[in-house]
Amino acid sequence: MLGTGHALALRGLTKRYGSFTAVDSVSLKVERGEFLTLLGPSGSGKTTILMCIAGFVAPTEGAVLLDGQDITPLPPERRDFGMVFQGYALFPHMTVAENVAFPLRVRKLGAADRDAKVRAALDLVQLSGFAERLPRQLSGGQQQRVALARALVFDPALLLLDEPLSALDKKLRAELQEELKVLHRRVGRTFVNVTHDQEEALSLSDRVAILNHGKLVQEGAPAHLYEHPRTRFVADFLGKSNFLHGEVRESVPGGFVIGAGPTRILQAVAENHRPAHGSRVLLSLRPEKIALLAEEDAADNVVMGRIAAWSYLGAGYTLVVETPDFGALRVALPTWQAPIAPSEGLAVRLGWSSTASVPVVEDAA
């Protein structure tokens, strides 16, 4: 539940290294108790922002505010933030309990209170029976749980997570994503997470901030970002997308028609977002929103093509269909909905609704 943690705000945050701008005037708010993920490719500035929040990197311009108070000048030890690193950063010569107790020892907490907090933190991450083990006796997932317990044991104002799951294999990463989401709900703290993994960002976060070349490109709830990307970069980075170029041929009630060669595509759009006649438009169309039509099936938009490649993924097929006017279109099709068995060279009809695609803008070069 939101509202039990602390609120964070970045105001015009900029970090330059010589002539290189790593973070370019980023302003962002994180609500109390929110799980926010900074998402972007390598070099997008997300880790630099996290280090500025933690106090390990001083911004060139701008400010970091906690509950409205400017904490930019404060060193890391005075910010009282918990942090979980990609590499765990556990002390190899200390037991699990000693590792978790370390922040409390630094704060000179009494032995009885310290032991009680360590037990509670290990219970929280389901490691109560591992207190006397050394890190080398734990799996990667267990080590990451210890790191989480250590970061939470002193009741930090914020929990900062620097790609905490990236060192784990795919199955374990998925399991810990679920556990981390439950943990966030239980502790009610404000979490700020950094990742380049789109699936992780979508599954964990209350809100996602997408970065590219040091700039904040778009932020919002995961479903909103996925369904309503503003730019080609967001549509392409957050999941997979097909891109349809065309010219606006006519306006129709509730939308407009674009043309690419002889093909006409109906696009639904709000009246106040209707593009001008003759203008060039770019549409983003998710692969899972394209159907493979039988001969008698109807759809708002129908395109003919031939299967150039296909893959069987158990729960579904991935098809690459070559079309005359839009080039190769990727189609994600649930196995149980496939009207035919895919094969290379097979002629197919593709169809989608007028609301399936979304107009996006090309990113600035």
Automatic annotation (TrEMBL):
Segments forming domain ABC transporter: 8-238
Top-rank EC class of the record's enzyme: translocase
GO CC, any one term: ATP-binding cassette (ABC) transporter complex
Classification via Pfam families: ABC_tran, TOBE_2
The protein's assembly and partners: The complex is composed of two ATP-binding proteins (PotA), two transmembrane proteins (PotB and PotC) and a solute-binding protein (PotD).
Physiological role: Part of the ABC transporter complex PotABCD involved in spermidine/putrescine import. Responsible for energy coupling to the transport system.
Protein name, UniProt field: Spermidine/putrescine import ATP-binding protein PotA
Organism: Falsiroseomonas stagni DSM 19981
